[in-house]
Design goal:
By secondary structure, the chain is α/β, with parallel strands linked by helices. It has eight helices and 14 strands. The protein has an eight-stranded mixed beta sheet with strand order 5-8-2-1-11-13-14-12, sandwiched between helices.
Length: 267
């Protein structure tokens, strides 16, 4: 790589719903890495988790965009996110020519969390991030492919040291903040953040994003995305966040090159 290990990376959150068809996200990320840009990827996999839950006769349940995760569901989350999806994406990146290392947020205590809402079950709220494992991977010339599984660090919990399910957007925002990323890009399956009329809002500041959350205009899966943007942007740690349609060809490159795509959010 041509840039310093300490050069702010581009953090990209990818989800299974955007991969396939005309999507070029992985190719874009490979090209960015080849150009010397440090890249960190956080992936989701909610659709695959739901498919595996249904195979086990478990009904997926969501509250404000967050998956309710009981004991049996957690086993599926860890197996699917930390295993199947993580390794499939890692293999695809390497097939495209980018050296990639797949890890989970548990590895090296990268993502530390506790259960903030017992009604959600084993869902973690990130309390701390140790970015050193990611920095080590980047400094060695690899792309980290991070699955959003955190380690429970609650001292008074009987599950201390065990995995917790963390929303992928939430994990990406926390990691970008800790890395003081150049930018964070959320790839989703809609054109961007919508107003009441269903029109894409091209630019938002943090106050506007918070108002969308509080007013109920933003709903479902957009709620954790906006919250993650605000987390990343807090204290000016990250200068800009993007929510863009990952199904569009060249979405990542267009975003990095300053073309008007999706919604751009600044502090």
């Amino acid at each position: 790589m041509t840039e310093s290990i300490f050069a702010p990376p581009i953090v990209v959150k990818i989800g299974g719903s955007t991969l396939g068809g005309n999507d070029t996200s992985l190719q874009d990320l490979v090209a960015l890495h080849a150009s010397g840009k440090p890249v960190v990827i956080v992936h989701g996999g909610g659709n695959v988790i739901s498919e595996w839950m249904q195979r086990q006769n478990l009904a997926p349940n969501f509250v404000n965009g967050l998956r309710v995760t009981d004991g049996p569901s957690l086993e599926i989350v860890v197996a699917v996110l930390g295993g199947l999806v993580n390794k499939e994406l890692t293999a695809q990146m390497q097939q495209l020519g980018a050296p990639t290392i797949g890890i989970s947020g548990m590895d090296g205590n990268l993502l530390q969390a506790h259960v903030a809402n017992p009604d959600l079950g084993y869902v973690g709220e990130v309390t701390a991030v140790d970015p050193e494992p990611v920095r080590a991977i980047v400094s060695a010339g690899f792309i980290p492919m991070v699955s959003p599984i955190a380690v429970d660090v609650s001292k008074d919990s009987e599950h201390a040291g065990q995995p917790l399910n963390v929303n992928g957007d939430t994990a990406a925002g926390a990691l970008a903040h800790a890395l003081r990323a150049e930018r964070i890009i959320f790839l989703t399956d809609v054109a961007g953040v919508m107003d009441n009329g269903g029109r894409v809002i091209p630019r938002l500041d943090a106050r506007g994003a918070e108002q969308l959350r509080a007013s109920g205009v933003a709903r479902g899966g957009m709620l954790p995305k906006l919250a993650a943007c605000l987390d990343a942007l807090a204290d000016a740690a990250v200068p800009v966040a993007h929510i863009v349609d990952g199904r569009e060809p060249g979405a990542v490159m267009n975003c990095v090159n300053g073309r008007p795509v999706g919604t751009r959010i600044t502090p």
